[in-house]
Specification:
This protein has 379 residues and is of the alpha+beta class. Helix content is 35%, strand content 22%. A 4-stranded antiparallel β-sheet has the order 2-8-5-6.
């Protein structure tokens, strides 16, 4: 095993500035502090590049690319000095949580001068850096593959929905208010529940996004068992549809199987009456562009948009014949089951990665520089 050396961050990384984004369109990604902002036909960095959010809410965020990109003026670039491994440095910077070093409170900022001065300790041999990067990259690659599989499965389900219920829709299909096709609505409005550092995850509105099928378990809060029992009147079940009422009204996700969380205020879980409706049809119906526009137009408030529960339950839902819905379910249910399995694997791999990251970057857990086996980590 190699030795670790103490040095400054500027001893191993060369930092560079971004530039104002070009106005032309193209296929080259434009990176800012929050990831890809758009695309252009020019680049100011090539090959392996680390991107760091420079200013504002995403100050200190870290991204990695291995192709031509444009780094905008609200981000910095980072390239390795000498033979240091770029992917290792990417994970190292993520673990540093650079926003903690930011200057200014109302408008946080990281500068090249600040980054260059940070004291660090890293493996001296590039082989060990590469071994650590390989372990973490293998987990991220698997997570990325599963996410891409889910996107493909979701696209297949949406294609069937459009074909059957938009392009081939028939006149005369029954229309009902949303409340007529629901069995139950999980609604935990009321006092804000006290949270704790551990316990049962409390899914808030920031976890529900339309680009995902199932809730994200990022930046969740927790409630203890007593709070869970006393404060929450009802709990979602697998297959319920979580609908956000406030902040980002119209964002919908499925409740996974098994359920290991409770839902916070500003959202409800819709339980479909399966005798008359398909949960998959309703989910994709609510995700459709037309209904999303209706939700936006029905919301009140400018600073924080809000869709009243009573208005939501009056939404008109087009109800195809039961035979067609059953046939649709038979085709898409396998897609959603596979997405659910993938989601559970993603969570497991993400937890393993997030557990390993600080241990690998501190040297608490070591990786053989020759065969990439992890030393000192049993799970």
């Amino acid at each position: 095993m190699s030795e670790w050396k103490e040095c400054k961050l500027g001893d191993v990384i060369f930092f560079g500035n971004g530039k104002a984004r070009p106005k032309n369109e193209g296929i080259i990604p434009i990176y800012g502090g929050n990831g890809i902002l758009g695309y252009c036909n020019q680049y100011n960095y090539q090959d392996e590049t680390i991107i760091i959010g420079r200013v504002g809410a995403y100050c200190g965020s870290v991204f990695y690319e291995n192709k031509s990109i444009w780094v905008s003026d609200n981000a910095l670039s980072a390239k390795p000095k000498e033979r240091n491994n770029t992917k290792f440095l990417f994970y190292f910077l993520k673990n540093l949580e650079l926003n903690q070093f930011a200057e200014g409170s109302s408008h946080p900022l990281v500068t090249q001068t600040l980054l260059n001065s940070i004291d660090i300790e890293i493996p001296e041999k590039v082989n060990e850096q590469s071994a650590i990067a390989s372990v973490l990259s293998s987990l991220d690659d698997k997570i990325d593959l599963l996410n891409r599989q889910n996107k493909t499965l979701e696209a297949m389900a949406e294609t069937l929905f459009r074909q059957w219920f938009v392009e081939e829709a028939e006149d005369g299909w029954e229309e009902k208010e949303l409340n007529e096709i629901l069995e139950f609505v999980v609604d935990n409005r009321g006092r804000t529940a006290p949270t704790s550092d551990t316990g049962i995850p409390l899914i808030a509105t920031n976890c529900i996004k339309n680009e995902n099928i199932y809730p994200l378990y990022e930046k969740v809060r927790y409630v203890d068992q007593e709070t869970y029992n006393d404060w929450f009147r009802a709990h979602p079940k697998p297959g319920d549809i979580i609908f956000v009422n406030k902040g980002t009204p119209g964002c919908v996700n499925f409740v996974p199987d098994p359920v290991d969380f409770c839902i916070a205020q500003d959202m409800v879980a819709l339980r479909v009456c399966l005798n008359s409706m398909s949960r998959y049809y309703l989910f994709l119906f609510l995700r459709s562009n037309e209904i999303q526009s209706q939700i936006l137009n029905s919301s009140v408030g400018t600073t924080i948009p809000h869709l009243k529960k009573t208005d939501l339950l009056k939404f008109i839902i087009e109800v195809p014949p039961k035979k067609i819905l059953d046939n649709f379910d038979s085709k898409v249910s396998t897609y959603f089951s596979k997405m659910n399995i993938n989601m559970k694997q993603i969570r497991t791999l993400s937890t393993l990665r997030d557990t390993l990251l600080p241990k690998l970057m501190s040297g608490e857990v070591r990786v053989s520089e020759h065969d990439y086996r992890i030393k000192g980590f049993q799970d």
